[in-house]
Design a protein that fits this description.
Layout: H1 6-14, E1 18-20, E2 37-39, E3 57-61, E4 65-70, H2 87-94, E5 115-121, H3 124-135, E6 140-148, E7 155-158, E8 161-164, E9 167-173, E10 183-191, E11 195-202, H4 209-216, H5 239-247, E12 253-261, E13 268-272, H6 277-289
Parallel strand pairs: 5-12
Antiparallel strand pairs: 1-2, 3-4, 4-5, 6-11, 6-12, 7-10, 8-9, 10-11, 12-13
Length: 292
Amino acid sequence: LPDFSRSKITNWVRTGKALVNNKTFKPKEKILGGEIVALTLVKEKLNAWLGEDIPIDVVYEDDDIIVVNKPVGLVTHPGAGNWTGTLANALLHFDPSLANLDRAGIVHRLDKNTSGLMVVARSELAQKNLVNQLQTHTVSREYSAIVYGHMISGGTVEAPIGRDPKDRIRQAVVEEGEGKNAITHYRVIDRFAHHTHVKCILETGRTHQIRVHMSYVEHPLIADPMYGGKIRFPKKADEDLKDALKSFKRQALHAKKLTISHPITGEEMSWKAPLPQDLKDLLATLNKFDPV
């Protein structure tokens, strides 16, 4: 059954949808040969999420995948405090058949206030393949970020990430063995006197990874409410620069480029999403009022 994951098949065994000689059995039971295995496949709606007519920017679609450019302010999928008005609700309106897939075909997420590219599966086989690509780190995800501080050069952060022991809502770099391995590569795109525009490439995909890692190397993202701390005004900053930093209301992070192997054809495919206007405006202000 190549279209389905082991966990899904195991669940069918546990719930009696799979029988051996007309009897239920446990996933680890061995068979001897000659038994008759019967499996009942029933397409079921896997969530109670409702489709909502929310505009989304579909960058690419075919029978197997949808690539969207998620705007700032849109939560990826329903959860505590956000049961409606999410990208998942928008996708279910765009393609109601996604109700037959776990998480409406969503295989990875972006934070509410991070913009940029996401790929969504349209079939069980595509979803299984994309999840495998993410787990084996063969998906390439490139982000643009604007951080505090003047960076001299790029580098790599390899530091495990787990729950912050002092604040369970946050993530943090933790001791080896206490979190999940996390690797972020970063390269300088443009330098300003007190800020830097960087390209971040994820080798792994942990929750808040770029935000945590850039804060860890003391270059937190501008306007990151969780990991950035208070606004940092450069000494002798003029009012225009101060106003720009005060008025920027979300972490300065955008998922700019996404590269995958097509889950069915195997063809390498890549998409780019231009910087949203708020990031362009911020860069223009830094170029004007915070030159090197």
